Amino acid sequence: MATARNSAEARVAGYESGADIYLTKPFSSAELLAAIGSLARRLSAQKMTYQAHLHLPTSTLVGKHAIDLNKNELAILKGLAEAPSQKLPYYRLIEIVGDEVNEVSKATLDVRISRLKKKFTDAGILNPAIKVNRAEGYQLVLELKLKN
Q1: Which pLDDT score, from 0 to 100, does residue 107 have?
Q2: Which domain holds residue 65?
Q3: What pTM did the predictor assign?
Q4: Residue 79, domain CATH
Q5: What is the pLDDT of residues 36-57, one digit of tens each?
């Protein structure tokens, strides 16, 4: 977040509203680049953590239904299951599967989610497993427990 508001209350409100970084104007190019670098390192570390902890079998049991999933579907499902409120924005899901965030990868994510939802339906799970949050991302609405 870049703003001219520099009071303690404004900073707290900014962080509480979801800002990862709060820069007050005027700021230097070096400060902006350092903040971006810090955030990039943190996101990169989170991405590696997700990849390192994917120990799910390719056949995942949901209720009484076994569903065969590929590694990207497992990563998406695990990311959603572990997220607060089981919601993740598009860009985070794209990062979790290791793709670069752009329009093509967003379309690819939409296809992956559609296939994943179809697998749940084919397995006899009638209620939607994953909900689309328009212009935000996706939410897992199926109760799912993952073993680490």
Answers
A1: 92
A2: 54-140
A3: 0.56
A4: 1.10.10.10
A5: 888 777 766 554 443 333 334 4
